[in-house]
C-alpha cells in the first residue's frame, strides 16, 4: 500500500528545506494575477518570469505542477515567506491532511482522490494563503485546478476576482473536496458491475476485484477522513486572513466532506456484503453439485445392489434357492426393465418431495 506510506527525511536530519535531497525538477509554473476588473495569466513560465509577480499589488495565484527542484522551493519560500517546515511537508509527499497557521499565513495539506487508469489514488495538494497571494503545489502531470482558472477567465468580475485571495483559497479547497464524488462514482460503478458478475458467475477473479476495491476504500478513508477536521478548524478558529463572509462557503465545503466520508463508509459496507455474496454463491454452487451427486448416488445404490446380487452367479441346478431367475428365458431383459423402473420411481419420488 504505497499510497499509505509518506516520504520522510532520514532520522536525525535538521528540519526544514535544508534536509531535502537534491531534485531533478520537472515542475511547471503558472501564474494568475488578477483584480476585480481584469487579470493576467501566464502558463509554463520560468522561475525568473514568475519572480516578476512576487511584488504584485494584485491578488497573485502561483501554481506549481509537478516536482519542483530545491531552487524553485527556496525562491517561492523566500518570496512569500513560506515557513520552512511547511515547505518540507510540500516536498515530502504522503502527509496527513492538516491545517497549519503561521505568521500572516495559512498552510493546508489535502488529499485529492485522483481517478486514473490505475484506479483511484490519493494525491497530496498543498496550499498557502497570504493576504494577497495563494501558492499551490500538486505533484504529477494531472492538474486538478483548471476549472478554477476557467471560472476566473469567464466570470467577470466573478466572486473569486471580487473577494480576493481568501475566496480563491476556499475555491481550491472546495474543488479538492468535491473531487471525491466522481472518484466514488467510479467505485460505485465497479461495485455494481461486480455484483452482477457475482450473481451470474462467481469466480476467483471477482474475489480479487472485491479485495482491490476494499483496499482502495481503506486508503481513501485514511486519506480523506482528516480533511473534515481541516475544514472544521478553518470554521472554528479565528483566522485574520479569511473574511467572515467566506465562512458560510466553508460550511458548505464541510458538508461535502462529510458526504464523501458517508459514501466511503456505505461503499465499504457494500464491498463487505459483496464478499459475503460471493462466498454464499460459491457455497450454493457447491451445494448444487453435491445435490446432483447425491441424487445420482441415491439412484444407483439400489441398482448397484441388485446388479451385485445377481452377479454372484450361484448355480440354480445345485439348489432351488440359488437364483432360479438365472434360468428364465426373459430373465435378462426383465432384470434391465426392473432397474429402469426402480430408477424412474426414485426420480418421481425425489421430484414429488421437491428434492430436485
Describe this structure in words.
The protein is α+β, with helices and mostly antiparallel strands and 356 residues long. It has two domains: 280 residues, CorA soluble domain-like (Beta Polymerase, domain 2, 2-Layer Sandwich); 65 residues, Methane Monooxygenase Hydroxylase, Chain G, domain 1 (Up-down Bundle). Strands 2-1-3-7-6-5-4 form a seven-stranded mixed β-sheet, with helices on both faces. Helix 7 packs parallel to helix 9, helix 8 runs antiparallel to helix 9 and helix 9 packs antiparallel against helix 10. The mean pLDDT is 86.
Any key phrases for this structure?
2 domains, Methane Monooxygenase Hydroxylase, Chain G, domain 1, seven-stranded mixed beta sheet, alpha+beta, 10 helices, 356 residues, Beta Polymerase, domain 2, single chain
Write the layout of secondary structure elements.
Elements lengths: L27 E8 L2 E8 L1 H5 L7 E7 L4 H10 L4 H8 L6 E5 L2 E12 L2 E11 L3 E6 L7 H9 L3 H6 L1 H14 L1 H21 L3 H33 L10 H64 L20 H22 L4
Parallel strand pairs: 3-7
Antiparallel strand pairs: 1-2, 1-3, 4-5, 5-6, 6-7
Helix pairs in contact: 6-9, 7-8, 7-9, 8-9, 9-10
Order of helices and strands: EEHEHHEEEEHHHHHHH
CATH architecture of the largest domain: 2-Layer Sandwich
Q: How many strands?
A: 7
Counting H and I runs of at least 4 residues, what is the number of helices? 10
Main sheet: which strands, in order across?
A: 2-1-3-7-6-5-4
Overall shape: it is: rod-shaped
Rounded mean pLDDT is 86
N-C termini distance = 48 Å
- CATH superfamily of the largest domain, called what? CorA soluble domain-like
Rounded to an integer, what's the Rg over CA atoms? 36 Å
Amino acid at each position: 500500500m504505497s499510497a499509505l506510506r509518506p516520504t520522510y527525511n532520514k532520522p536525525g536530519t535538521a528540519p526544514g528545506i535544508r534536509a531535502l535531497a537534491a531534485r531533478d525538477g520537472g515542475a511547471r509554473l503558472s501564474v494568475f494575477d488578477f483584480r476585480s476588473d481584469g487579470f493576467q495569466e501566464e502558463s509554463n513560465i520560468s522561475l525568473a518570469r514568475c519572480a516578476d509577480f512576487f511584488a504584485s499589488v494584485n491578488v497573485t495565484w502561483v501554481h506549481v505542477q509537478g516536482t519542483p527542484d530545491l531552487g524553485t522551493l527556496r525562491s517561492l519560500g523566500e518570496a512569500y515567506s513560506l515557513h520552512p517546515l511547511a515547505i518540507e511537508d510540500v516536498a515530502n509527499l504522503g502527509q496527513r491532511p492538516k491545517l497549519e497557521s503561521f505568521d500572516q499565513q495559512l498552510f493546508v495539506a489535502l488529499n485529492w482522490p485522483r481517478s486514473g487508469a490505475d484506479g483511484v489514488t490519493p494525491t497530496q495538494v498543498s496550499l498557502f494563503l497570504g493576504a494577497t497571494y495563494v501558492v499551490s503545489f500538486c505533484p504529477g502531470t494531472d492538474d486538478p485546478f483548471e476549472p478554477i482558472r476557467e471560472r476566473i477567465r469567464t466570470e467577470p468580475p466573478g466572486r473569486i476576482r471580487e473577494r480576493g485571495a481568501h475566496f480563491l483559497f476556499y475555491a481550491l479547497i472546495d474543488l479538492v473536496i468535491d473531487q471525491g464524488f466522481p472518484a466514488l462514482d467510479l467505485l460505485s460503478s465497479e461495485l455494481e458491475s461486480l455484483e452482477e458478475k457475482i450473481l451470474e458467475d462467481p469466480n476467483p477473479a471477482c474475489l480479487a476485484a472485491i479485495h482491490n476495491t476494499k483496499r482502495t476504500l481503506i486508503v481513501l478513508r485514511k486519506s480523506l477522513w482528516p480533511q473534515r477536521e481541516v475544514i472544521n478548524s478553518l470554521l472554528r478558529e479565528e483566522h485574520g486572513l479569511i473574511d467572515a463572509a467566506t465562512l458560510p462557503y466553508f460550511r458548505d465545503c464541510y458538508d461535502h466532506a462529510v458526504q464523501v466520508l458517508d459514501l466511503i463508509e456505505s461503499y465499504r459496507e457494500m464491498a463487505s456484503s459483496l464478499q459475503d455474496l460471493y462466498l454464499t454463491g460459491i457455497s450454493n454452487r457447491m451445494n448444487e453439485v453435491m445435490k446432483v451427486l447425491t441424487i445420482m448416488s441415491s439412484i444407483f445404490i439400489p441398482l448397484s445392489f441388485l446388479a451385485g446380487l445377481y452377479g454372484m452367479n450361484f448355480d440354480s441346478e445345485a439348489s432351488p434357492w440359488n437364483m432360479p431367475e438365472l434360468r428364465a428365458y426373459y430373465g435378462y431383459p426383465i432384470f434391465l426393465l426392473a432397474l429402469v423402473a426402480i430408477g424412474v420411481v426414485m426420480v418421481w419420488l425425489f421430484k414429488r418431495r421437491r428434492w430436485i
